[in-house]
Q: What sequence folds into this?
């Protein structure tokens, strides 16, 4: 075939792929967009860290310095383990465990979580809260405005429930009770803070990283204004970083090592002293540990010297048979600062302020009232030379204008005998120990009740009480006309003691006095049915004295010393 022939050959058309239709091309694009959207939806999102913060939260608390700390390997077991203390077992019984397993807040949170899981089709088991509480946990507690431990930060290890956090962002976007309030920087990453509303106008905040879950039972621990869309306190947010990292941030507050036992409960002395802790900084905290079978007690002490814990002279002055007593070392520096303010107000003579120092003791007696303990302390130097100054201080600080006495306080009665000086003054008060008809000057009393307030100096011992009968008994004790408490106590450093039977009698009287049958019938009936039997059961236990090691003041460094208990 010639070239010309080949050039004239016409190629036979072959079967080819048809050109794509416009609709098919659009379907492929749509599938790709859907796939991208699904990937984007499930791909971990980068949270935008909040930048608008207030200076402090509403409560303005230091999140690293709680008033009390509960640590537990299994938090849910703590209420039942507390009942292994004999006195608590009689006082609280199984009702205590039932209360904490079924109280309104816990049931409210569980109910809210169940609703969220059901409505949003989440695979959260009904046992979610129970499983969380069975993990290792810490509960840091702070006092509220009423002095009770009202605000809690709970740090839990989420364990097998760690995956639940992945569902929260989606739920918070469309749920009325769960919402994201802020995103903070914690543990090196962005962390969402959520607010969960439950019950009737109750709410809590929580945040989690990895298996660390922080729960704030009071939103004011973090929020500046308590509103769901409010700002968080910058100072408190900065403290969350170490908490979210799982670091032992509470340990320095109580000088604690790693928890090896089942439970450990630590309470600061400042809280136990109801705000007067600065007067006794040598007592740092009290701690109880549970090793799985029994509880042990410890006390944190520091900067102690022998005179600070020389309580024996105080117990020699206390009349025998108290309901409860406590003795503490008193910081001379802190006391000087307080007395300095009194001197500035010209109500406390400088000569008296210079005499104070050393430990002090308080005792409550069943035949008096809960708010009228006997105070005993020691004076320094030539105390007798300052009786005039003591009398002046008593006259200036004790008393109230009496309308029937020319709007002046009643006169101070002054008795001086060999070895002691005794001052007393009658003061009308709604909370007085005595009824007005008991007074020898009943016609001059405007109120229905009154105090006879007493102050006495016996040698170097100073006595004071709102119930002068206790001061009179203490004088008789120091005169060897009445047996002293010291005769009943063990030879040891004894900072506290209780007589359960007498204490139960005292508390029962206070309860009944505060719930008169003709005014508070319902509450009085409830107290008689539930509280009083518990108190009487407590009263069957023996008298117990708290003992510290004899060499407790040997080392001035901060340390935890063991506490032992003995009958007296």
A:
């Amino acid at each position: 075939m010639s070239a010309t022939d080949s050039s004239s050959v016409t190629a036979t058309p072959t079967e080819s792929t048809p050109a794509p239709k416009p609709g098919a091309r659009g379907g492929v694009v749509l599938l790709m967009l859907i796939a991208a959207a699904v990937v984007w939806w499930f791909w971990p999102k980068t949270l935008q860290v909040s930048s608008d913060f207030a200076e402090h939260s509403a409560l303005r608390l230091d999140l690293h310095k709680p008033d009390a700390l509960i640590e537990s390997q299994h938090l849910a077991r703590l209420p039942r383990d507390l009942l292994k203390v004999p006195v608590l077992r009689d006082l609280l019984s199984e009702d205590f465990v039932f209360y904490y397993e079924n109280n309104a807040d816990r049931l409210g949170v569980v109910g809210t979580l169940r609703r969220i899981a059901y409505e949003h089709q989440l695979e959260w088991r009904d046992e979610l809260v129970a499983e969380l509480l069975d993990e290792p946990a810490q509960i840091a507690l702070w006092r509220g405005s009423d002095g009770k431990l009202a605000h809690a930060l709970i740090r839990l290890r989420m364990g097998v429930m760690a995956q639940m956090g992945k569902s929260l962002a989606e739920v918070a976007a469309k749920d009325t009770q769960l919402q994201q309030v802020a995103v903070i920087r914690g543990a090196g990453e962005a962390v969402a803070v959520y607010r969960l509303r439950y019950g009737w106008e109750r709410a809590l905040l929580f945040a989690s990283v990895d298996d660390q879950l922080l729960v704030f039972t009071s939103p004011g621990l973090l929020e500046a204004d308590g509103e769901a869309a409010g700002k968080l306190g910058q100072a408190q947010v900065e403290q969350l970083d170490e908490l979210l990292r799982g670091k032992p941030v509470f340990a320095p507050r109580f000088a604690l090592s790693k928890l090896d036992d089942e439970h450990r409960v630590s309470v600061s002395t400042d809280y136990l002293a109801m705000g007067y802790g600065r007067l006794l900084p040598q007592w740092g905290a009290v701690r109880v540990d549970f090793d799985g079978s029994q509880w042990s007690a410890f006390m944190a002490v520091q900067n102690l010297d022998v005179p600070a814990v020389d309580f024996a002279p105080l117990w020699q002055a206390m009349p025998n048979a108290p309901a409860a007593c406590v003795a503490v070392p008193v910081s001379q520096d802190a006391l000087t600062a307080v007395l300095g303010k009194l001197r500035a107000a010209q109500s406390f003579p400088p000569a008296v302020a210079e005499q104070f120092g050393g430990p002090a003791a308080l005792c409550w007696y069943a035949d008096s009232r809960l708010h009228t303990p006997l105070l005993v302390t020691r004076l320094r130097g030539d105390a007798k030379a300052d009786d005039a100054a003591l009398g002046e201080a008593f006259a200036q600080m004790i008393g109230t204008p009496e309308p029937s006495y020319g709007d002046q306080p009643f006169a101070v009665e002054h008795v001086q005998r060999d070895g002691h000086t005794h001052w007393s003054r009658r003061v009308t008060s709604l909370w007085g120990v005595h009824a007005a008809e008991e007074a020898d000057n009943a016609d001059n009393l405007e109120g229905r009740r009154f105090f006879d307030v007493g102050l006495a100096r016996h040698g170097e011992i100073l006595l004071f009480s709102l119930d002068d009968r206790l001061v009179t008994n203490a004088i008789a004790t120091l005169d060897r006309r009445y047996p002293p408490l010291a005769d009943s106590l063990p030879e040891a450093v004894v900072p506290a003691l209780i007589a359960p039977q007498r204490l139960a009698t005292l508390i029962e009287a206070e309860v009944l006095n505060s719930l008169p049958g003709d005014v508070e019938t319902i509450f009085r009936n409830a107290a008689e049915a539930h509280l009083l039997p518990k108190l009487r059961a407590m009263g069957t236990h023996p008298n117990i004295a708290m003992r510290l090691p004899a060499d407790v003041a040997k080392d001035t460094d901060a340390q935890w010393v063991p506490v032992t208990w003995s009958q007296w």
The CA atoms of residues 415 and 423 lie 6 Å apart. Residues 22-42 form the longest helix (21 residues). The chain has a mean pLDDT of 82.
